[in-house]
Amino acid sequence: DSETKTESLILEDTVIYFLQEGVYQNEESVKEHVENLHISGLPAAYIKGDSHIHVMVAMVPNLESGKKMRESAIFPETWPKEFSLKGKVIQNLTKEERSFLESAIPIYNKLVEEGTRAFLEGDKYVINPNLQETLNQLQKQEALEKETIKAMHASLLEAAESLQTYIQSRKQEDWLRSQQKFIDFITQYISL
């Protein structure tokens, strides 16, 4: 019964990779800086580490891809960063929410890898046939009740849709939109 919120889930520690635009200590100046990046058309958000605040501007599948991506004109003043997200226990979930959370990071990883390949390979990029299957899987997901989980789902779905649009259009703004949705997903995941 999807109405009962009796499910729980242990989210394992996970590692994410991103292009870091900067490292800061003052949260107020970081908020202003992220806003300025948004105004200039770049995706951005910040993530708090143990002693510093890191500004993310693009999500990547690994450090090597991050190094290649920073060679582009969009991200010259960035550095690839590996960042560990601590595991946690999430309780009072519906079966649907548990199912979504179990699949969320693997789906995110697939989409980020695909988005990075599409960006780096340019016209040589050949679409992964599993991308449509991943999009279908996200579109079928329903009955999510918790606001954060709904927002995570919406971010992943919009990232996948923007990525598909980018693959068709090759317009930088479509790729940047997908990146902002990946960044949004990670900040929502952290807030669980």
Q: Tell me what portion of residues adopts beta-strand conformation.
A: 15-25%
Radius of gyration: 17 Å
For the largest beta-sheet, the strand count, sense and barrel status come to: 4 strands, antiparallel
Question: What structural class do you assign from the helix and strand content?
Answer: alpha+beta
Detailed description of the structure:
This protein has six helices and six strands, in the order E-E-H-E-E-H-E-E-H-H-H-H. A hairpin with a 4-residue loop joins strand 3 (45-48) and strand 4 (53-60). A four-stranded antiparallel β-sheet has the order 3-4-2-5, sandwiched between helices. The radius of gyration is 17 Å and the shape is globular. The protein has helices at 27-39, 63-69, 95-121, 130-140, 147-169, 172-191, and strands spanning 7-11, 14-24, 45-48, 53-60, 79-85, 88-93. The mean pLDDT is 94. Helix content is 53%, strand content 21%. By secondary structure, the chain is an alpha+beta fold.
Question: What descriptors fit this protein?
Answer:
alpha+beta; four-stranded antiparallel beta sheet; 6 strands; 53% helix; 21% strand; globular
Helix/strand layout:
Elements: E1 7-11, E2 14-24, H1 27-39, E3 45-48, E4 53-60, H2 63-69, E5 79-85, E6 88-93, H3 95-121, H4 130-140, H5 147-169, H6 172-191
Antiparallel strand pairs: 1-6, 2-4, 2-5, 3-4
